[in-house]
Design brief:
heterodimer; A: alpha+beta; B: alpha/beta; six-stranded antiparallel β-barrel; 16 helices; 39% helix
Amino acid sequence: MAKISPKNIAEAIYCATEGKSASAVEPLFKRGAQLLKDKRMLGKSREVLSALEGLIEKKSGAVRMKVTTAKVLNLAERKKVEEQVMEKYKARTVIGEFFEKAELLGGMRVEVGDEVTDTTYKNQLRQLENFLMR
Amino acid sequence: MSNYIVENLRKEIEAFKAEIKTEKVGHVMEVFDGIAKVSGLSDIKSSEMVTFAGGQTGVALNLEEDAVGVIILGDFSKIKEGDEVKATGKILEIPVSDSVLGRVVDALGAPIDGKGAIKAGKTYPIEKVAPGVVTRQSVDQPVSTGIKAIDAIIPVGRGQRELIIGDRQTGKTALAIDAILNQKGQNMICVYVSIGQKDSKLRKLQTRLEEGGAMAYTVIVSAGASEAAAMSYIAPYSGVSIAEYFMDQGKDVLVIYDDLSKHAVAYREISLLLRRPPGREAYPGDVFYLHSRLLERACRRNAKYGGGSITAFPIIETQAGDISAYIPTNVISITDGQIFLETDLFYKGIRPAVNVGSSVSRVGSSAQIKAMKKVAGTLKLDLAQYRELEAFSQFGSDLDESTKRQLERGKRSVEMLKQLQYAPVKTEHQVVAFYALTKGFMDDVPVEKIKEFEAGLIEYTERNAKTFYKEVLETKMWTEKGEGELKKAIADFKASFSK
């Protein structure tokens, strides 16, 4: 018998709750939790939630991005980055998370899903190091 | 001097342009026994190379729904959970160049012989589809191994795959090394792939090849016993990639895989760690494909596609002579013949311990030179008859003359096929020796003096049958004139030998 993955459960929960009212959804969540308990998968609940979150974002055309910079970005800069990502990934909305890391020295690292665009000085210095070693 | 360095460094830095691109990145979920489970990397291809944050290289083998199973090539002790893993978009490749000759490299093509860096040329992918039928040509040129039992009875052709199979300590590696040593001046590049062997054995082998002047045309690819299973897994593919580099230049290459039993064991280890379902003897289901795709890359290409050939000598170690085990039967069915080495023969003093009855070369006879075919044509049959009569003669002493004659000839044939290690015999010398044997010149030479007779005969005929040697070397056959000269030389030598 095929093994049930957290992704399978997340898909089942999504399909069962799609387009339903809040009152109709509540018993479904309870049954979902019961299913996890019955299948001894309560330990995987975090993975189920993460898969469900990813599924909802995918269906709603939302893109989650993580931006790391050396200095804090102001609102206008953040908006500009969001617009660029929205255009590149043809997304309806962008959920942005912004972080600061002084060791990057400059530039920016943008992560969307498993794609990374790294323009930081730290990365460029690493490339220079590899180039000179060759 | 310092100004010169600074100036050059400045030029290099000015020429550098940082590359900004979007990369596929995953994260290590878990690491164990040389395997990493990586999340992300959604578009990764099977066998694609990945790089870890610490600079280690890996190969994606298992593409699962939510994770990728990666084998780590090198030290995995520094890889941590959460580390970044980048997909390179390339199939694993190794650097190849002419400078690799004479060197010992690891499975990734990096030098391990302490002789400094190897000048990089091109890179070749380690996994490649074998040449198609259109590009191939039938095997019709011999590989002279210098081993009488092989060259005469189980001849191997350029582009052939001939398995060397036998128990431990039966002389499998020795046979392969002799074959390499005999390639001197034969326009052949040799690649020796050592899989899971002890470093001491490899060192001994390298020294032997250096002493014999064979390292000039040989590359050793080593994945030692202390290295990760992943290195043993990729080593033969790296070896054949190096061979393909030379074949692409129209050269003939001899590749020795020592040994594919350990290769299969390494692959079994990786597969079980990747949780692939085990099959017979716990090997994964694709273990046949593991070896068939490797050995299919041995071929002889036709002139239209650049010529060149790769001859493969895979080695398989059997357990207590069991050739019906899983891996031996697989490789026997893939190859174009096999050379069986037997423990019993080895301890009887018949060395190389080749069982000529069970050994076979499926395409080799067409690659044998005419002269050798003529003198050794009946040898296999004679030996088979001798073995049968030998068993039969043990039951009774009353034997007729022709049976006695056959037994005596058989004894001399067996003696003649004995050969010392690291002492390959030239083809033309073999022709002379077998000529003398099959024409009955040795029938009255005592068995214990056959070796002495053979050595003396070769020395004498080299001086006194020059036309014969010239004809064999140039036309691969002799004329009546040459034969007459040889016959006379043999008779003269025999007369002096008897005295």
